[in-house]
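Supplementary Methods S3. Complex input for the S-adenosylmethionine-bound model.
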Amino acid sequence: MTKLIDPFARPISYLRVSVTDRCDFRCTYCMAEHMQFLPKKDLLTLEELDRLCSTFIRLGVEKLRITGGEPLVRRDIMTFFRTISRHLETGALKELTLTTNGSQLARFASELAAIGIRRVNVSLDTLDAAKFQAITRWGRLPQVLEGVEAAKKAGLRVKINTVALKGFNEEELFPLLDWCAAEDHDLTFIEVMPMGEMGEEMRLDQYWPLKDLRARLAERYTLTELSERTGGPARYVRVEETGQKIGFITPLTHNFCESCNRVRVTCTGELFMCLGQEDNADLRAPLRAAADDAPLESAIRAAIARKPKGHDFDYSRQKVRGQVSRHMSHTGG
Ligand code: SAM
Ligand code: SF4
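Predicted complex, serialized as structure tokens:
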């Protein structure tokens, strides 16, 4: 079986799959309050998701991240996790992980740990309950903190993902850092991205460049650049005073494209070869066309042959160029 390698000799070893576009939160930078969700019949079934992921694993994917929407609100999602974890047992899959808002972790953490998940990413932008409610609209901070606690108790390594939002969580920088140090959670900051049709005014207003955030950190702490690379848009520093490793995800820069090892599949089976570009391939039709995986496999190979060299965001003008019209909850963050 020839593994997936794109035209720029990058092996495709990392797949992110969105398993639902639905969510129990309505984060302002991610969704409109009254979202029009996709008809259920358009979503891949759990069996289709399994076939899809298993095919990618056969073709060389070693790391699978499940995301959404909120993956843990998809009905019966634990059945999917239990079944797909067979690839961890065979060793074909090196890591199975998920990105979650944490609201359902108290229910599911121990089972996730039991099937072989080692790490979870939990999105959390503030430790202030009122602000948390304002930014997530429908979320409740205590429920998420309980989920994070349950994950830690179950032995899962927690990485907190914080979207840097100007005028919103600038003051949260040090409280978040201190909390993560005390709880031994990793922490990564994400630069806000121009996703969805949320209005570019608001987006530019919220934009807090991570280089500014980093400079703020450096006023108080000694930061040492780490050489660690994940093939994605994350860079890491060590905070010498606390020993913490802090990540910075700047999706709008091009400087990680050359090592890009990843592709994404939406909950409707569209394969996006690059986060910043619209080109995609429909994998749902080949999945539904035949019971065997041959058409799916050729559709995947044809798409990977078109993976572009780099992406196309541009914040440098007042108008957001290269704005991607789909929502993060659709593509999967
Ligand atoms: N619901 C889960 C969660 O919130 O972690 C998984 C899906 S969510 C779309 C994945 C990540 O994307 C979250 O960390 C979220 O903060 C981030 N995200 C959503 N919209 C974003 C945007 N416009 N810019 C940057 N990050 C965004
Ligand atoms: Fe839901 Fe995650 Fe989007 Fe927030 S960021 S609305 S939790 S999908």
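The first strand starts at residue 14 and ends at 18. Residues 242 and 322 are 39 Å apart (CA to CA).
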